[in-house]
């Protein structure tokens, strides 16, 4: 028979019932055995009770310098916490449902742009990378210090970062000034390329500068973000600048010698950049250059 088989001749199939009780994961009693048999989180188990939701009370330092009559004041907002809620999500809900005048910055919501940096309980951090479940039910928010205030939690980090980049000339100074778009890119040792890429991960959020004690006392201080950029271009073999050139940029109290090594910058960096190591590296190289000049 080569034709199609009539559907009426096919016997119906009755699937056997599945005993779902056998699908329950039995937790392992030995935490060091490495078998992977662990109890699922409470919010992932079928039929289990969800984590108790909290009412968050968020106190925001508010001030709009561009609004006549505005004065710095604290305002507290209350909202119900949701599973997996980030601080950005909480602020967005407040602006949509309670107060549309609340100002804060965001772009990527993934810790890439650095726009949503603010003081969370007095510590600089990114709102989009901060889970509310890791905070107390009551916490405070304030704008980053040191930078020009736009309003509420919004500050202008871009203006300061542009000025800083111009001061340290944060671009590759090529040995050949002629641009050849057909030229094959120069080869680079993979380990060296990885070190350069590590420092290129900076998102210029301003957390390191806001946490810096020297920057608070010395407005002209370049900060860890600038010193890390200097370290990055000093490592780059394509950059023609010498140690003497870098010394003219950061070899003073507004540069690497102004750092008091409090290392708050290293502690608050949301990208976990090795700022302490890079500052020590630049200082060591500039000390050597200083003695060479003497």
Structure, described:
The protein is an alpha+beta fold and about 290 residues long. It is built from nine helices and seven strands, in the order ββαβββββαααααααα. The protein has helices at about 85-95, 155-170, 190-200, 205-210, 215, 225-235, 245-250, 265-270, 275-294; strands at about 55-60, 75-80, 115-120, 125, 140, 150, 155. The strands form two sheets. It has a five-stranded mixed β-sheet. Residues about 20-25 and about 30-50 have low confidence and may be disordered.
Tell me the distance between the termini.
101 Å
SSE arrangement, N to C:
EEHEEEEEHHHHHHHH
Strand content: 5-15%
Strand order of the largest sheet: 2-1-5-3-4
Count of alpha/pi helices:
9
Which range best describes the helical content: under 10%, 10-25%, 25-40%, 40-55%, 55-70% or over 70%? 25-40%
Unreliable stretches covering 5 or more consecutive residues: 20-25, 30-49
Radius of gyration of CA atoms, rounded to a whole number:
28 Å
Structural class of the helix and strand makeup? Answer: alpha+beta
